[in-house]
Structure formats: structure tokens, C-alpha cells
Amino acid sequence: MAALRVSCGAAASYRLFLGGRVSSARGQGLWKAAAAKLQRSPGCQILRLRHTTVVTTRKNVAALRRETYTVDFIKKQIEEFNIGKRHLANMMGEDPETFTQEDIDRAIAYLFPSGLFEKRARPIMKHPEEIFPKQRAIQWGEDGRPFHFLFYTGRQSYYSLMHEAYGKLLDVENRQDQLRAKGLFSEKTKARDPIGSRWLIKEELEEMLVEKLSDQDYAQFIRLLERLSALPCDAAEEEFVGRFRRSVTIQSKKQLIEPLQYDEKGMAFSTGQGNRKTAKAKVAVYDHGSGRIEVNGVDYLLYFPVTQDREQLMFPFHFLDRLGEHDVTCTVSGGGRAAQAGAIRLATARALCSFVTEDEVEWMRQAGLLTADPRVRERKKPGQEGARRKFTWKKR
Amino acid sequence: MATRKKKLTPPLPEAGHSSAGIMLKGMTRLISSVHKLDPGRFLHIGTQAPQCLAAHLDNQVATESPRAISRTSENDPAKHGEQHEGQHYNISFQDLKTVFSHGLPPRFVMQVKTFNEACLMVRRPALELLHYLKNTNFAHPAVRYVFYGEKGTGKTLSLCHSIHFCAKQDWLILHIPDAHLWVKNCRDLLQSTYNKQRFDQPLEASTWLKNFKTANEHFLSQIKVQEKYVWNKRESTEKGSPLGEVVEQGIMRVRNATDAVGIVLKELKRQSSSGIFRLLVAVDGVNALWGRTTLKREDKSPIAPEELAFIYNLRKMVKNDWQGGAIVLTVSQTGSLFKPRKAYLPQELLGKEGFDALDPFIPILVSNYNPKEFESCIHYYLENNWLQHEKAHTEEGKKELLFLSNRNPGQLERLCAYL
């Protein structure tokens, strides 16, 4: 038992035994005794068996390496988070009581500005629930007996969910039969919005159940849910099914359409902004024109001597079949020749949205005219000649 | 083959006022007569497959009426008027060889070779100039006309149009195709024999003399030099000998070519006022005369334009102190040295010195095509089957071309080269 005398100060590595690792009864007995002993020792964190003398088995070694967090650890993190939140609110001069997550994000972005491209690499301060992956608590009690009746299937949450769903299905069918027997059956179909929501994907379901699933399991579950939803259900079942649907927003509705503006002569015009790489462009598209385009005060033929750039300018008009109908005045700065052409193209497409029907806006979006090109110059890394190019490899 | 071609392309009345009905009837008759030919004979039509021929026929039907728009049969520039604006007229190969041996822009020469015909569009600036030339008073000093405009709008071709007119009117043409060629990229600069401070350019001078000779053969025997010129110890030209001798001397003795050119210029200037002939001085890119050069002496110091003998003489020529002719010039940025790309006004391109030297002059702006001219140009290309893209015939295709070229003739030509 000497090995069990683990120092209480070693708070760094907690070990949480995810169920079913210790299989032998002898191990169980040892473990029980050890647990009892540890609980009695005061001031010590409850170490649920770090590792016993049988440390050389491969399974346990694998378990060692996995990061596991105790419930207490998580609780401590939550407390620290809340205290930190209040400190942050104080620092920013806001009210600690009404400091929301968005405020936290804004404050962190302000205090720790980062130029990293990968958003996930930037400093964040979120609730520990979101940061630490969900772990399963101990599945069995002091006597070693598991809590859940489906524990020995190996995937208790999944099977219990299937059981529940099937139970509900049977309930609904029973009710239907009863209604039919009474003659009060009415064929009413559900009006679920087929486009507005979607089923959970496998990863989301795994996250919800904190269990690994296989593709067949997932497909089975979805089929069951579809069967359930096809029948007329009442509110409880609806709510049950609703837990497994996520809403899907249609992308194009995010596109703001500016209203047409009118200048002093009564001509309708519309403005748009666009950028590409480092070039920024501001464009005013006038109605009832003759296809004249002026860039920074100069005719577009002189400003863009290369045909490729002029083709870029032509693209939005050509797509909407409005080649000779609009006049354009624009200012552009920064970037290079092609970047400026791309920026003006995006800006004209956005400006043309105001002149055009919703359908055509959707077509433009699908054609990629309304999306800003996110490509920027990649930085050069040390130890390499360029962004990707390595130095010439010399064998010796 | 030639006869069949004639059947397919009947010469239409020029005004094109005949009703569409008659034209269509004519075409249907044509088509039926063509179809009466044996299929075997179709196969002997050069490299064109019968389907292509059918398509060509369709083309002909569609573009039959616009043919009156894009072409005219009036080949004499003297008779060109407002009604011919936008139409192409043909220049005979004879004229090409004599008058335009060195005058046309290289892209146009390529187009002539491809289409096997030289067609020039009649445009407003050229018409304006022709009008002035027709009404010149030869007793007054020569008037200077300057074509200016943005790049690719057709200044050089307008100049060539007026040269053609003058050649037909039997003027003596003094045409320098591109003055910029004289101020750059010259390999051999000799110190001038006549004047020690100046420099000669033998090669360019001799080529120019050759072209000048082909252009004005018949004049060279008529004009006599009015003083004696000594070339070197053994050779000299006596007073009263024809100018052709001076030209020959320049061509043969390349060392004296620049001096020969100088002599020719001097003599022509002196004698044009006498009225035997009328002189047209046409210089393309006249802003080269007053700009900078990229030529350097052996000690790497730059040479100013007036130190080149040719430029010096040419400047004297372009001054309006002689009578009996006209001076037509263009300023262009295309070959110019040290001038910004977007400059096109005479003031910017000539600089202060040049502007003062040329002042007063009549500026004529050459601009992009107007819609009618644009249509005409597209039809010309379609007729010659230059545009092979299937969308080129359609309205949308034309709109695209319009947008991409912004009605600039040079750009349009470059674009159509890809189609």
C-alpha cells in the first residue's frame, strides 16, 4: 500500500477513472479499501485511485495519458471564472452583475489585441463548460454497482435514448389506436418547416451524449426520430424531437439590400463598398447611364490597360444583362492592379443589389459576386525563404 | 473560284436605299442558283467545308443590308464626304506599294496581309482635315494641323488617309512614319561631315531615302537642285541636276545620307513656294522633335535632339515659313520618351519648347469610335470572317466588346485578334 500514499500536493494530475477499467474482482477489493482509506485522510483531495500496484498493464497506462478532470476541478475552474469575470468587469468599468459573455469577448479583444489569422488561436475567456470537454462522471457507486441499468451494454446513453424514443413511439401509436377505436381519429399532418431546421449531425450527437457512436447507430437513431415525427404527436413528443433539431438560417437573408438613393437631379443611384487584398473601393452606380465607368477621375480604359481587369469590371453587369445601362463612378486605393479591379467588382455587385430583384441577388450570391475574397498575402515564416518555399535542401 | 465568289458577293448600290424586299429576292435567287451547283463542285471550294459555306451564306443574308454600312465603293479620298462616315474604303495595292511603303502602323500592315485587302475607315477628323486641305490657299504660308488624342484612337491612320488623298491629288509627299525612331535605339552615330557639332544617322537616313524615292518617283526627275553640293573630294552634284541624283547619292553613299536628306528638305522647302508642285509634310509623333533622346555620346553624356542633323533639318521643315503646301502632324505618347502614359494633349506631349515652335496650329481631336463607327468596324470584321467566336454575331457579344474596348479602335482590334 505504500504506493498509495500519494502526496496531497500533487494536485496537478487528478485521475478520474472512466468506468470499467478495473475488471478483476481482486482489483475491486483493493480499490474499495484504498478509497475508504483516502476518504478518511483529511485535507487531501479525493484521489480516486491514481494507479494501483498493477501499473504495468497496458490499459492502465493508456488511461494515465488521457486528460481527465475531476468534478471538483471543474467546479474550481467555474469559481475562478466567475471571480475573473467580476475583476474584468471592474477593469472595464462596467457593472459586474450584468456582464455578459459578449462583453467578456469584447473586453478580451480590447485588452489582448491579436493579429493571428486563426480565430481559435486568439486569447479567449469562456465558461469552463465550453472549454473543458465534457467528461462522464463515475458510473458506479461505492459498492461497484453501476447506476444505469444499461451500463453493461457499453453505450448506456445511446441505448437509453433509443429506448426512450421507441417508448414514445409506442405511446403515440397506442394513442392513435385508441382514437381510431373511438372514431375520433383525424388525419392531420404536421407542418414542420422542412427547410428551417435540420437533424443533429453525428458529432453534435456524440457531444451531447459524451459517448462515441458509429455511423450505423447514428443512422438508426435518426430513422427512429423521423418515424416518430411522421406521426401526429402532442407537445411533449414535439419537445423531445425538437431537442435534436438545429435551425438553419438561409445565407442570403444576411445580405443587406441598401435602398436606392436619389441625388439632386433626381437620378437614382446606389453606393457600394468592396475590398480585396489591400485594395478598398467605393462605388456609386447610377441608373439610366450609357456604360461609362470612371475610376479615380480617369476613364476605365486608361486606368486599367489590361483586358483582364476590364473583364472583372464587366462581370457583374454581364451577369445581370445590364451592360450598357448604368454609369459608374468609383474611387479606389491600395492594393495592386488586379486587387483594385476585384475590389471594384465586389463594390459594384453590392451596389447593383439595390436595382435588382431578390432572385437575382440570390443568383449573384451563388455566382460568388457578393462574397469578399478572404485570401490575403501569407506571411513569411522564419527558417523558410517565403511563405511556403523552403530553402534549397542540401544533402550535406 | 473567283467567279463563284463574285456570284456570292454582288456589288450593291452604294446608297443602300433599295428596299429590303428586292435585296432578299436577290439573295434567294442567289441561294437557289448556288444550290443548283453539283455537290461535287462544293468540295472543290478551297478549304471551306460545305457547312461553313452555308454558314457564310447565312452570314451574307444577315449582313447583306449592313454591308452598305460598313463598306463603300468610293475609293477616291477626294470624293469622301459626310455620307461616307463610318464606312471602309479600299486602297489599291499599287498605292500601298508606292505611297505607303513605310507609312502604315505595323498592326495595320499585318491586318492587310491577313485580309488581303487594305480597307481604311472614313472618320470625322480625317474628313475635317480633307476639307481644310481642299480649301487651302497656296499663297499663304503652310498651315499646321495636329492630330491629337488618346492612345489607340486612330491618329496615324487618319494621317495616312490624308496622305492618300494628297497622293491622289498629285502632291509631293514628305512622310516621316515615326519621328520617335530617330531619337532612340540608334546604333551608329557619326559625327556630321557638314557640321562638326551635329550627329548623323546613316542607316535610318538611307532607308528613309529609299522609301521617299518609291513614293515620289515622278517628281524626282522634275525638280532641279538650285545650287552645287560637294560631297567629298571626288563627288559633287551640279546645279540644275535633278533631285533624284541627290537621293541616289544618299542611298549609295550611306555616310552622306543624312546630309542628302537635309539637302532634299532644303530644296523642297525652297521650291515649293514656286508652284511647280505642292508639298505635304507629314510627321507622325512630332513630339519627338522637341523631347529628349536616349542616345548618348561616347562619353555617356546625353544628346539633345537638335544635335541630330536630321531633327534639326526637320524642325526647319515644320516651321511655317514656306508656302505652297500643308503640314500635317500627330503627337503620340506611344513611342515617346519620358512622357507619362496618360498624357495625350499637345501641350503635355510637346513641352513648352515644342508648343512655342509649333504655335499657331490647328488641333484636331481624334476620339474613340461613335456607335455607328463601332458597328461598322464589327461588321467589317464579321465580313472578313475575322471573328470566329459564336457569340460575336449576337447583340450581347457586341455589347461585351463595346464594354471591354470602350469603343477604342486600337483596343478593339487587339481584342478581336483573340476571337
Automatic annotation (TrEMBL), chain A:
Keywords for the protein's UniProt record, in alphabetical order: Mitochondrion, Ribonucleoprotein, Ribosomal protein, Transit peptide
PROSITE patterns: RIBOSOMAL_S9
Keyword Disulfide bond belongs to the record: no
GO CC field: mitochondrial inner membrane; mitochondrial small ribosomal subunit
Residue ranges of the TM segments: none
GO molecular function: RNA binding; structural constituent of ribosome
Alphabetized Pfam families for the sequence: Ribosomal_S9
UniProt signal peptide: none
GO annotation terms (biological process): translation
InterPro entries: Ribosomal_Su5_D2-typ_SF, Ribosomal_uS9, Ribosomal_uS9_CS, Ribsml_uS5_D2-typ_fold_subgr
Keyword Heme tagged: no
Source species, domain of life: Eukaryota
Annotated SUPFAM superfamilies: Ribosomal protein S5 domain 2-like
Main subcellular location of this protein, as a coarse class: mitochondrion
Family recorded in the similarity comment: Belongs to the universal ribosomal protein uS9 family.
Name this protein carries in UniProt: Small ribosomal subunit protein uS9m
Lineage: Eukaryota, Metazoa, Chordata, Craniata, Vertebrata
UniProtKB/TrEMBL annotation, chain B:
InterPro entries per record: P-loop_NTPase (IPR027417), Ribosomal_mS29 (IPR019368), Ribosomal_mS29_met (IPR008092)
Localization (cell): Mitochondrion
Database matches in SUPFAM superfamilies: P-loop containing nucleoside triphosphate hydrolases (SSF52540)
UniProt keywords, alphabetically: Mitochondrion, Ribonucleoprotein, Ribosomal protein, Transit peptide
Domain of life: Eukaryota
Biased composition (Basic and acidic residues): 73-84
One BP term from GO: apoptotic process
Pfam families: DAP3 (PF10236)
Chief location bin: mitochondrion
Start and end residues of each stretch annotated as Disordered: 63-84
GO molecular function: structural constituent of ribosome
Record-level GO cellular component terms: mitochondrial small ribosomal subunit
PANTHER family linked to this entry: MITOCHONDRIAL 28S RIBOSOMAL PROTEIN S29, SMALL RIBOSOMAL SUBUNIT PROTEIN MS29
Entry's family note: Belongs to the mitochondrion-specific ribosomal protein mS29 family.
Protein name per its UniProtKB record: Small ribosomal subunit protein mS29
Organism: Delphinapterus leucas
